[in-house]
């Protein structure tokens, strides 16, 4: 099969060539979309590179899942509803079995969120995947990093540190207790908090997804919103395995470990209980601190209300 | 500089964070666009990989130019006006000089077409560049591959074969006459026919850009339009260097060589002269044949009106 036949066989047939707002899907020089008049278009692109963002020997299914999930996570953090995807797949060889496994996992996750693959590219080269997700929000309603106000409460969805711990365990397994399968899974198959993001659209003052570690990503909210924050170490929702290891390491992994893909967001204090109940019905959320006026400063407080100093710098991509 | 500082320094500062239809540019988890209500959104993504789509030792400036130009060419072939770009840059090392040169060339070409970079990604890994261009057309007006009708005339913009000849010359220079600098340039810096595409929007019945060679790409029009074609070898606009070499090789390069990034399009026969004059005022266009009813068959005729058989298969990506 040549490039076009591969796309036809593994991807194009899985998606409609036009449907509703999609005027033209895979199969021409470009795709055509009618963005609904009352909506703004929200766009995010992410690339995953073999040996950098995933292990060289990761399964085709996990690679496909993670490639799509991390871009969905960005769209979730904007409170947008994901709709259309483009995919550029660069592969060292035309391995049909691998492509079949990749596409079935990719197509299944896309289906779960009713996404349509509308185009992309297939190239020969070192294994890498670029996904762009296109979502929609009612005009003016998308969440940003910049809306946090002094006095707002800081929340995170889900539990933190599972992916970072799984990575530590894989790289240094002899000295650490084995994480549960569900926690290992978080490294390869993070859950994009799409429904939580959409629910937050009308209530959160700011939002970001935690891809580089809580402190680094909350730091972006603080910088964009020109505020500070105080976090209570004891209120962080540590992933289960972190409760079995050295406390300082657990804190470091939960606060600076990458790849959580949970949402960190701010809510005005004193919201009605039903707002939080509605959020909780989708995914547990945890209040971990307060927005303060100290510009761009981030204070960590321990259980005795004493400042806590963390040991390492946040993860950096590059 | 970390990832965010590099983006800030080399890219973000070169573009507005919001302007007109752009609600939010680089610097959040995603970009936000208000697509005009009377427009449809046209989207194309392309990846270029070092050693596959360009030479490993190509200049940062040429790589940047070509990465953007090839995606612009796809948008041009739809007759759309390019507006917003996303860029994913994967680099083996954080070489600031290289990034500075890449970004200045990329930003300059973007400026030439009034494009705004709205987001993307920066990763460590083998050199590769993915660009997605987002354009707009009046609703229902974008060109497709599927509209060619029996009796339509087949045209191409510009001259063919320069890039393929430059590649042959570089790989096998001793036996071939040296191409002019402007022809060598076509391999590294193809001209996306954006203005021609927009002009064609109201007159062409189908359009495609020639990235894989005329026969291969015209073949896509024939397949999508369920028609055949007859091309006259003598009417092909051969690039100047091709006139100095063996005739069969010249025909092969012009008809099957990749990387032309000219437009191939069909026009109803008998259009008023001013339509063609208007097209000619932007870029020369050449009538090379006729759409026939022979489904998916492509006949080549020589100057004696005898069938001509070409020797090689069209270039394949993969």
Give an overview of the whole structure.
2 copies of one chain form a homodimer. By secondary structure, chain A is an alpha+beta fold. The first copy, chain A, folds into 2 domains: 3-138, PurM-like, N-terminal domain (60s Ribosomal Protein L30, Chain: A), CATH 3.30.1330.10; 153-301, Alpha-Beta Complex (Phosphoribosyl-aminoimidazole Synthetase, Chain A, domain 2). Chain A has helices at 3-10, 60-77, 96-112, 162-171, 181-188, 194-200, 214-225, 247-256, 273-282; strands at residues 22-24, 31-33, 39-49, 81-91, 116-124, 128-138, 153-157, 204-209, 228-232, 263-267, 285-292, 298-301. In chain A, the strands form 3 sheets. Chain A has a 6-stranded mixed sheet, with helices on both faces. In chain A, strand 1 and strand 2 (31-33) form a beta hairpin. Chain A is globular, with a radius of gyration of 20 Å. Residues 314-318 of chain A have low confidence and may be disordered. Chains A and B meet through strand 2, strand 3, helix 2, strand 4 and strand 5 of A and strand 2, strand 3, helix 2, strand 4 and strand 5 of B. Strand 2 (31-33) of chain A pairs antiparallel with strand 3 of chain B.
